[in-house]
Design goal:
The complex is a heterodimer. Chain A is of the alpha/beta class. Chain A is built from eight helices and seven strands. In chain A, strands 4-3-2-1-5-6-7 form a seven-stranded mixed beta sheet. The two termini of chain A are 36 Å apart. The mean pLDDT of chain A is 96. Chain B has helices spanning 5-11, 38-46, 77-93, 109-116, 147-156, 181-192, 207-210, 214-222, 238-244, 253-263, 314-327, 353-363, 382-390, 393-400, 449-458, and strands at 14-17, 23-26, 29-32, 57-60, 97-99, 124-127, 141-144, 158-161, 165-172, 200-205, 231-233, 276-281, 288-290, 298-300, 342-345, 374-377, 403-404, 425-428, 443-446. In chain B, helix 12 packs parallel to helix 15 (449-458). The longest helix of chain B has 17 residues, at 77-93. The chains are: A alpha/beta, B alpha/beta. The structure holds iron/sulfur cluster.
Amino acid sequence: MDKFVRLEGLVAPLDRANVDTDAIIPKQFLKSIKRSGFGPNLFDEWRYLDVGEPGQDNSRRPLNPDFVLNQPRYQGAQILLARKNFGCGSSREHAPWALLDFGFRAVLAESFADIFFNNCFKNGVLPIVLPATEIDALFALVGATPGYRLLIDLERQQVIRPDGRALPFAVDAFRKECLLNGWDDIGLTLRHAELIKAFEDRRRIEQPWLFA
Amino acid sequence: MSQTLYEKLWQDHVVHQQADGTALIYIDRHLVHEVTSPQAFEGLKLAGRKPWRVSSIVATADHNTPTDHWERGIEDPVSRLQVETLDANIREVGALAYFPFRDPRQGIVHVVGPESGATLPGMTVVCGDSHTSTHGAFACMAHGIGTSEVEHVLATQCLLQKRSKTMLLQVDGVLGKGVTAKDVALAIIGRIGTAGGTGYAIEFAGSAIRGLSMEGRMTLCNMAIEAGARLGLVAVDEVTIDYLRGRPFAPQGEQWERAVVAWRRLHSDPDAHFDCVVELSAADIRPQVTWGTSPEMVVPVDACVPDPASEPDPTRREGMQRALSYMGLRPNLPIREIWLDKIFIGSCTNSRIEDLRAAAGIVRGRKVAGSIRQALVVPGSGLVKQQAESEGLDQVFIAAGFEWREPGCSMCLAMNADRLEPGERCAATSNRNFEGRQGAGGRTHLVSPEMAAAAAIAGHFCDVGEWL
Ligand code: SF4
């Protein structure tokens, strides 16, 4: 996993609540057995005017000019600004894979769905929860200011606006540590292999039917 | 100290706890399907790691498999590769059980686990699928995980987790005519919203829940994720124990006796504290129909499509307008005047034998309306299909004009050939009415199997309670 320490990037606004994982990456693209290559199909049904299928040449497909990410001013955006309950629906990790592959490294929203939130951290995408008033203000600023950028400082747990205003955010200490260092969870867990083994042995004696 | 069921389950699985509260949780059962596992198996291999405990794995292919013409195999090459990749991975790694494509026990992973007895009370059950919450009906700590976590469980038999908050969802009283577990689930989501359960483990309790069969409890826990909760729970009682007795992977003989003793403590203590309590009266719940593109956009069948003009919150109002335009509905239209193109009875929410019996009960001796283009019944598993056929339910559906299919996820998410065409309107017993879920441009109304069956006959929604 790539480290996440500081990110200074262009912000793209997606002004809808309850953006679900089917919208983030429609199911036909889940047939892939790879982890990469999902970026061109991020928000596929909103981004294109036709119906996408895996294996197409996406550069030849008709773009929906009304969809926000297709607007020239948001090209190259790395920070997605969203509304409440972002990422609801399925557990598909293809959703953060698609966001990452497209170029997003952070999502700011009023709230996130649990599993999506968790999946983001495993892939070096930082989901940041901000109060509704701050999110509203950011939507207004992004809309009014072409080229609007934000600085995200994970170490200090702040989103810093160009006018200098710093928006603090909470992040779980352990997850923060993992992101800052680009650590792989599995390696960390396996340091406790002895404990796991002992727990398992005891459980096998106490509740053998769980091990049939 | 008195504990909630969730707290008991949590405590029973903590291997190690860090100072910040993050815990290493032991995983008893790992359910695997073809869509979310290939990258995990690949990651494991690339890192030179071995699976920790193969006997925890129960696998099946369900999302991509076709539901007709099984003799032709899987015609879509991309789907086929994914299913073959699962075959190869399980062949290489091993499993307690694998029900591949065309095996008589193959089916939707959340149907197969419980029916085979691979889901047992007191377990932690995970799967790379959000509807793993289904298994909470057996007092399991069961939830969906992403592919990185699938790999983590394969490699370590554990997950890193923080404890959820607890919510008690108390439903007391007697459900009215034609009101099912699905309607209870939808009514709950209508009440607390799709984010209402975020961060919580929801325990469903109360006399109405006790009165549900295991199938009904699974339907309810299945939908916990649509209320934002990663996991739903129902305490163990005689219904749970009766259901499990004699299932292939359930313990036998002396082990069964011991297990039952252990399972009987899997309930919340009478004075346990919950972080949040929500109460519903069963008698107030009517058959539900969703009108929008989120499961919280739901109303009773005798109501009308809501009017965005009367919604004060601007973000919500805009969301309603967008949903109505996607759904092709006008405000204030009575739900009963919504006409349908397709009917889908299936999915891990409502494809168990009891669901099929209930739907067949409505359909028996009647005909699907001429205006319905397609009405599908997709049993949740090969064993459900066999059972239904032995009861003659297939003939009831076929005589009425339904198609009787092979098991799988099918039109719940349309990864195989079963799907809605743009603009088509469907009454579905599945769990998600998101834009494009059942096919690009498709319009989904979530309902119970009985309501879907009645809609198939009438061609439009109607109150199934009046048919009983
Ligand atoms: S039936 Fe639908 S919701 Fe259930 S596992 Fe299959 S795709 Fe997911």
